[in-house]
Amino acid sequence: MDSDISSSQPSRRPLWVSSPTHHDSANGHTPLPSPSSRPKATPPTTKPLPLASISFRAFALGLTLGVSLTATFLLSYLTSPLWRAPFFLATLSLFHFLEYYTTARYNPAAATISAFLLSQNGYGYNIAHSLAFLECLGRHWVLSARPRWTLLTPIWWMLPMQLQLSWLGLGAALMVVGQTTRTMAMVHAGSNFNHLVQMKKREGHILVTDGVYGWLRHPSYFGFFWWGLGTQVMMGNVACLAGYVVVLWRFFRLRIESEFAPSVPQLHFGWTVKNPSFCSEGGVFADHLHLFAEEENLLIGFFAMDYVTYRDKTRVGIPFIS
Fold this sequence. Notes:
Elements: H1 2-8, H2 51-77, H3 84-106, H4 122-141, H5 161-189, E1 206-207, H6 219-235, H7 238-257, E2 266-268, E3 273-274, E4 284-286, H8 294-303, H9 305-313
Antiparallel strand pairs: 1-3, 2-4
Helix pairs in contact: 2-3, 3-5, 5-6, 6-7, 8-9
């Protein structure tokens, strides 16, 4: 009868009491387990951030920034044109530090090592900046004894002093505008900002049409394009300036305008969706990409005519790209 009753009625034992393995010989009752033997609830586990690696990278970038700025001021005081090389290194350090800092400040869930964008940009990114250094240093050391009127001759050597200062001011302005716009885009997107393209639309997707997005459809594209050109204007690089213009303009034109383009290395430099799973306001070269127009098509699929209307009312801010 006991077995029939227990099978037809719910057990009154606490849920944490395990099935009896033996009976108390003194009273015939099953002894309760001691508190130390009771199962303990397992807290939810989250993947810890590699704080040591993050701290090391932040420290290295800060140290590089400080040393580079010191070298820039010292070489400038000595009237050496080589001040541009450490200045370029300082701007790169600041750029990558801001990528992580802004992400950590306004989107801490995405503040992983990859947010620094130090190794995620691919070989093309590294080659471009390495060539900029080589042109600057090579122009000074290799071509110093050659006639000034060469392809690698600094542009400012051909200009009066007042125009030289204006040229440097132009480069500085382009860098400030580009970096500020890019950072503002990240801040405005906040926790919805992501350096990687997200392929799914989840609940809560919102199309951003205010702030910097009210003026520019791809503010991070705009920011990186003009920031990159500004660095080469400041460096006085003729060949790399032309190369940056061609490569960046061609990429962004294909990225924004093409309906069907072949698979090529990917750049995530900006997007206009404010949501937890689809926002690619970043600066990443990936190994492969879908069709260039897939991002635009996804947005149209997500937001239908709302995105089409928004697209028609905004601009890209890069010449000859609509």
